[in-house]
Amino acid sequence: MSEPVIKTDKLTKRFGDFIATNEITFTVDQGEIFGFLGANGAGKTTAMRMLCGLSIPSSGQATIAGFDVYKQTEQIKKNIGYMSQKFSLYEDLTVLENIRFFGGIYGLSDQQLKTKSEELIDKLGLQSEAKKLVASLPLGWKQKLSFSVAILHGPKIVFLDEPTGGVDPVTRRQFWDLIYNAADDGVTIFVTTHYMDEAEYCNRISIMVDGKIKALDSPANLKSSFGVGSMDEVFYELARGAKRSD
């Protein structure tokens, strides 16, 4: 077995007397789709910022793609992709300009940029839109383009922060097809979502409550251990303080 691509041990972040993320411990394997769930204020964003090398932990340990979150934050940033709910695209640039801009940030050479830009345009079927402003694209296409740009440089891990917020169910399902394809290629997916049907698509999920991980397992095992039929019900049981039966 290879080493986990994400590994945390009692990772903690304090802001004064407030503990935003409280001794979270988990691992994520290569190619895994890992759901990181919790209500607003549960500590998800704080945890993700530490994992992305954007915030130094107060205590605990973590490695991302083999790099230490305290000492090797720049190496972490080069080995991950990131996509937010806002899709992280510049709407006043064309499709091609966005691809080349972000590819340049990720350190791709001019030749790599040329090759990967052409490959991506063909893959997404955006030949006729390549020189159009991103602002003119339908929401679903912006979403697909943003995800594709996030993995343009071949990262080991891509962090998706509420990537399907505000889009219709059909477009959400199509987006998850992109996630599956990336995972099949060995990319590790770390995703936050508040859609409980999407939690079902993950290999494993962790559920944070008040800064702590209160449950971590596959969706099927969690539903079984709480004796319920949906992830919505798992959340409800955790919210009312129920314990797993196993």
From TrEMBL:
Pfam entry (one): ABC_tran
Domain ABC transporter: 6-235
InterPro entries cross-referenced by the UniProt entry: AAA+_ATPase (IPR003593), ABC_transporter-like_ATP-bd (IPR003439), P-loop_NTPase (IPR027417)
UniProt keywords, alphabetically: ATP-binding, Nucleotide-binding
This protein's record includes keyword Oxidoreductase: no
One of the record's GO molecular function terms: ATP binding
Keyword set includes Cell inner membrane: no
PROSITE patterns to which the protein is assigned, alphabetical: ABC_TRANSPORTER_2 (PS50893)
PANTHER family: ABC TRANSPORTER G FAMILY MEMBER 20 ISOFORM X1 (PTHR43038:SF3), ATP-BINDING CASSETTE, SUB-FAMILY H, MEMBER 1 (PTHR43038)
Protein name, as recorded: ABC transporter ATP-binding protein
